[in-house]
Design goal:
By secondary structure, the chain is of the alpha+beta class. It is built from 7 helices and 13 strands. It has 2 domains: 1-146, Herpes Virus-1, CATH 3.30.40.10; 166-285, Vcp-like ATPase, Chain A, domain 2. Strands 7, 8, 9, 10, 11, 12 and 13 form a 7-stranded antiparallel sheet that branches. It starts with 10 loop residues before the first helix and ends in a 15-residue tail after the last strand. It binds zinc ion (ZN) (4 copies). Keywords: Metal-binding, Zinc, Zinc-finger.
Length: 285
């Protein structure tokens, strides 16, 4: 990848093959790579469909879709978003392959790029070799069950504290400044998108806020997996590759003096939570 990600060109653009189209999905456009069988595919589509490990190699080598080649001929699943069958329609125009929501109870099938556009959650498994895909319905169910999705240090105390509903207008105790906790009120809760990024040195981070991705407006134009992005992380501006996202429940809390801040559930206390001794409330002037 060049130093400036904006100069990055996909294989299709470099070869000026403008009729090239992804053989794994119906989306026309987006960066394409050549496959070993001389077809074209989106990096996102091939990563998700073939479940190959995401590493630097992939960026340079042609995509190997030989594992899924047989299915391209035989699969007749219908995408729940674009309603196009996987392939085999009258014009024999290949419509790619559908993948399925990771929730085994769920029967939603979709094209990778259709899913991406419709807000299906793409999460890399811990071994970085396969993706979990969660359709919107299943994301919501999961949020209601857990009140938030967590990967890091889910210790018991935190789990216990997340039990029970947080209602609007509820009084809570939250950190106002580094050494000061105060009573405050829940004014809003919402899902915030946390983005996953693989940096050039292969570090993997999964808690990037949309606002910290500089070269894309993630709310309107979510990057595809593998897209080059510029990120603010630890106060540094870094280059990396987009690697998916998940949603976290965030709570907007208002202090007595009108100041509002967003908190994760584990960062504030309900009045009947087990409140640690170090948390002393102060009245804010
Ligand atoms: Zn291109
Ligand atoms: Zn595709
Ligand atoms: Zn589709
Ligand atoms: Zn589902």
């Amino acid at each position: 990848m060049p130093d400036n990600p904006r100069e990055w060109q996909c294989d299709r653009c470099m070869l000026a093959d403008y009729d090239a189209a992804c053989c794994l999905c119906p989306l026309r456009g987006g960066p394409l790579k050549q496959t070993t069988c001389k077809q074209w595919a989106h990096l996102t589509c091939s990563l998700v469909i073939t479940n190959v490990k995401f590493d630097r190699q992939i960026v340079w080598k042609p995509i190997d879709i030989s594992v899924v080649q047989p299915f391209l001929e035989s699969d007749r699943t219908t995408c729940c978003f674009c309603s196009q069958k996987s392939n085999g329609n009258i014009s024999n125009y290949i419509m790619g392959l559908c993948v399925r929501c990771t929730n085994t109870q769920c029967m939603e099938y979709f094209h990778v790029t259709c899913a991406h556009r419709e807000g299906v959650l793409f999460e890399l498994n811990d071994n970085l070799t396969s993706f979990r895909l969660l359709c919107k319905k299943c994301q919501m169910n999961k949020l209601y069950r857990n009140s938030s999705i967590h990967h890091h240090n889910p210790n018991h105390q935190q789990n216990d504290r997340r039990e029970g509903n947080i209602e609007l207008d509820m009084m809570v105790i939250a950190r106002y400044s580094p050494n000061c906790y105060s009573y405050a009120r829940i004014v809003e809760h919402c899902d915030e998108m946390m983005h996953h990024v693989q940096f050039v040195d292969n570090t993997f981070v999964d808690n990037i806020h949309s606002a910290d991705i500089l070269n894309r407006d993630c709310e309107k134009d979510r990057p595809m997996i593998g897209d080059p992005i510029e990120v603010i992380w630890n106060k540094e501006q870094l280059h990396g590759k987009y690697a998916g996202c998940h949603k976290t429940k965030m709570y907007r809390i208002e202090f007595d003096n009108g100041l509002q801040t967003s908190f994760k559930r584990e960062d504030f206390y309900k009045l009947n939570d087990d409140i640690p001794k170090r948390v002393q409330t102060t009245k804010i002037e």
